[in-house]
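To: structure desk
From: M.T.
Subject: fold request, one chain
Message: Could you run this one when you get a chance? Sequence is below, nothing fancy, just the single chain.
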Amino acid sequence: MGRNKFKAPKGTRDILPEEAKKREYIEEIAKEIFQLYNYQPIITPLFEKTELFIRGIGESTDIVQKEMYTFQDKKGRSLTLRPEGTASIVRAFLEHNFNQKPFPLKLFYIGPMYRFERPQAGRSREFWQIGAEAIGSIEPAIDAEIICLMIEYLTRLGLKDFTLLLNSMGCPKCRLSFIKVLEKYLHPFKGELCPDCVRRLSTNLLRIYDCKNKNCLKILRQGPIISHFLCEECLSHFKELQALLTQEGIHFQIEPFLARGLDYYTKTTFEVRSPYLGAQNAIGGGGRYDGLIEELGGDSTPGIGFAIGVERLLLHAEVEKIKIPQAAKPKVFIGLVERDLKREAFKILQDLRDASISAEMDFLGRSLKSQIRLADKLGVSFVLFIGPDEMEKGVVKVRDMESGLEEEIKKDNLIFSLKKKLSVKDGGNNES
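Reply: Done. Structure tokens follow.
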């Protein structure tokens, strides 16, 4: 076979069976938790009109300025692969008149997102997110619920070493006062800021919090703090949220410089950080977006949500040695003694599967010795031998691969007997 010249595009990769099984597991746990909290599934398109993300995320954000995969279709319309989930959820909310459903509307999604970034550990150009949105309530209790949902999910997976950071970005009214003070504070440092932050001074000042430059961060951390400028309503909202989380035993740290990377956040912002992921240390996070639906053409409707990065979650889980179930292996292998009995073997194979017993056989014409080696490599519990002597007697020879013991079982009693044996192997918990 010649050398393969085709490889997955940079920043993407194939998710092979072992990892796919882990992803399947963490998705199943997510769905269990979402169902417990009454969040319903929604699936949105992989691409949207570019304008949706420009208006929703913010034209001056790094995502829109640098990271979106934007292209024109054959009719010259500008489309973008979705870089995050919330804008698409809000578009669906408006398109399908979800405002007529009982509030709060609770939705969750699982799927790939796309951003043009420099690939590194925990950050790819194609990445997966698990996210949830609650639309229609301004109450701090819904903020608390969605944070509890996120923390309960991570805890159910077995994660322990993470930190929940919490902040309030205020509302447009109190944020305006803060921006004026921040702008006045930063002006004398203009010559010391990185080029991106100099640009942000005149385009979108709060995006300066996205900067990773150490000198810019040092300057910011010596400046004014947004929580000191919260209006009475925003301060009361933030205090009530903290009280609710404390009541539920949710530990958090106030991080006054946490702004997240999207323009639509108002009031509550939060982030879960890992000590194991280096610079890209956010496992997930989110916040409130009370102005987004109105910005995209709907009535003024509050909302809050979060998203968890699946790749970062798996990296963190690996460091914490979280046990995630491996891909299921077949329980039974059918060893074919003579090739002219393959029809009989195939019939038994399908009968076992119809009875919910995971089974496998050889499809490459291997010798019986090679078939047994394959069965051992697959890790099956039992090998069934199909040969002329067994066929004549109406039995199947069954070998226990752990003990090496063999016995003959009548074909009519095979499924019942195998289920009983597998139940013993599984400690009485066999579902077959």
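Reply (cont.): The chain has a mean pLDDT of 93. Let me know if you need anything else for the meeting.
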